[in-house]
Amino acid sequence: MSIHFFNHRNRGTGFSLIEVVLALGIIAISLVGILGVFPTGLSSNRTSVSDTRAAALTSAVFATIEAQTKTFSSVNCYGITLDLGTLTTTDSRKLYVSYPSLTEPTISSDPALPDAIYTIEMKFDNDPAVTSAGSKMGPGKLNKIQMRISGKSNSEGSVETFYIARNRG
Predict the structure, then answer these.
(1) b/e map of 119-156 (b: 16 or more CB within 10 Å)?
(2) What is the pLDDT of residues 72-128, one digit of tens each?
């Protein structure tokens, strides 16, 4: 009894060198296109983190002020004493923010705060117009606080918001 081995493989069925080079070229072009999207995604992520932090900082500062507006005298806001009844549009105050941990900011009125990455500038308008007719409630009753939060570098931009503080006393 004899055993015969037959090679049924056709010599023309493998990939040629040209086909391999074309496949690698297509993959390389695809990877370059995909990698080109990464800087845009990283920039978008950085902007969203900055905007989220700005919103949280705004909320923290406004909540601190709101908690003390039984009367407008002597509102303590992270080391700055604010008399909302007398501050005018020419007055502005600055706070500085650092993030020693990823989730807990440190807010201070000290410009020498180590590793400060955000600046919060507050401007005040005591007794702003509250309706389209321009009616006012009287000094010491209402204060519009405009807040601008900007990053360390100018390329980060800034977030602006405003808040109406009402004397609840």
Answers:
(1) bbebbbbbbbeeeeeeeeeeebbbbbbebbbbbeeeeb
(2) 777 888 888 888 888 888 888 999 998 888 778 889 998 888 888 888 999 988 888
- pTM for this one? 0.71
Q: In angstroms, what is the C-alpha Rg of the chain? A: 31
Residue 36 to residue 58: CA distance in whole angstroms: 35
- The secondary structure element, H or E, covering residue 18 is helix 17-35
**Confidence at residue 11, expressed as pLDDT on a 0 to 100 scale:** 59
Tokens of 11: 């010599």
Q: Name the phi and psi angles at 162, rounded to 5.
A: -140, 160
